[in-house]
């Protein structure tokens, strides 16, 4: 199954990812085999408020990022994304652009359960695609909450997309985007207040602690493919910067620590005899009937 | 020991908290006994950039919050706070104000190890003080990172303190403070750009999703005790709001879930045979030698 998926069999690929997403025993075995094969792909996260034009931008980036003799995968965690089947009237993205290209694989994680579930399976799906030989990974998330910010921070390069307007700049700032953005994109740059928004973002960024990488603020009109080339170039520059400074190693170590902590919690929860045991313990902690350390001990002992 | 600490014996109190902080077996036993006695205190977090005047404000709030026949504890997680022994020249706080008041207990967690250690022991120390009968808890943190934001979100009411100036408003926004603030305070309100800062913050808050509680933006001159009374009143109003709307129960349940997850991770790490096992596994995950789920399983199996 893994060999067929690696060779590009789309149905095998879908089955492997579904098993991993559902955390079945086969999924665990697949992950165990795939993870050590990975570490060579580059993941680019695209996040921003709904309506900023993330999907159109992703669609434009695909053609410029897909390697000639390699593969690219898009993981859509935004339920309103056309990649997730959530296309709305007026959305000008044409999925057909990539429908015939077997170097491009698109996977939606948007309709697979609650938000917590989505954000929890995303790192595993990305690691699996990495191990399956996809050189480029694009992750589209809707950045309106802590969970999405967490997903974004698992990417090697994070692009934050905003629309022109002071409101959007402030929203980006409020959502914690200034911390996570490696590249800022003001999309819909044919609108009048584009320059002001770029200046606002640059001013906000300048107030932060100096960093070895200064996130550029780029503009694009994704629907007309304007500015997309420069964004892809910025992704490449950012990649070179992380590699050259050694920061990539630090980032991937931090990511590993987060993944281990999440896996420990999942392992404990999955193996506790009663599925509701965790929820019940949380309620009892909230009611001050039991302390968190004793509760953790009882979950660990129940394994 | 617990009875002496509860009765107000300061040395017993210090010993109990130290055992809990160091996670010794006695500390675990203390926690086990203390946690179910708690749930009655109100914790107010005061956060903001260094130099905003948090400590002076805390000092002013102590006298107005301490119950006549009860007790108040200050937990300082900011290494630069005078409460942590880090007073700097020009700091006008007089700790002597409260030195003779045995209803007030001050505990610094600032010099006890790395940041991760600090933020990890803070919830346990707060829960212990709660169980020891302190009705009011004030937590001072320096809000310049994710860890501090996490600490702040464990408080029932979170006050974000900024200095006048557009830079501070933007910094507050960048640090994720707009999300966590229940009350905003623009301190040093004798400075010229105070009104503009209040307006900026109110405009930023207005752009956010509507909430059942609208964080007020207050002003103070903490060094002259101006505005402190209104801040304490706002804390009381916020408390009444959380209780009346039932939101308090939701908040405390979310907090319990976070505490349980942290306790599980701590439990696994503490009992792994090799102290360095976790760090080694993280490095191996980062190097793609082992997947996080297998690594978690090996840590759990090693217990």
Protein described:
Two copies of one chain form a homodimer. The first copy, chain A, is of the alpha/beta class and about 300 residues long. Chain A has helices spanning about 1-5, 10-20, 25-35, 55-65, 95-100, 115-130, 145-155, 165-175, 175-180, 195-205, 230-245, 245-270, 275-285, 290-300, and strands spanning about 40-50, 70-75, 105-110, 135-140, 155-160, 185, 215-220. A seven-stranded parallel beta sheet of chain A has the order 3-2-4-1-5-6-7, sandwiched between helices. The longest helix of chain A is centred in the last third of the chain and has 25 residues, at about 245-270. The first copy, chain A, is globular. The model of chain A is unreliable at about 85-95 and about 110-120 (pLDDT under 50). At the A-B interface, helix 3, helix 8, helix 10, helix 12 and helix 13 of A face helix 3, helix 8, helix 10, helix 12 and helix 13 of B.
List keywords for this structure.
alpha/beta, homodimer, 12% strand, seven-stranded parallel sheet, 303 residues
How would you summarize the topology of this molecule?
Two copies of one chain form a homodimer.
Chain A: H1 2-7, H2 10-21, H3 25-34, E1 42-48, H4 54-65, E2 72-76, H5 96-99, E3 104-108, H6 115-131, E4 136-142, H7 146-153, E5 157-162, H8 166-174, H9 177-180, E6 183-186, H10 194-207, E7 217-219, H11 228-245, H12 247-271, H13 277-286, H14 292-301
Parallel strand pairs in A: 1-4, 1-5, 2-3, 2-4, 5-6, 6-7
Helix pairs in contact in A: 2-3, 3-6, 4-11, 6-7, 8-10
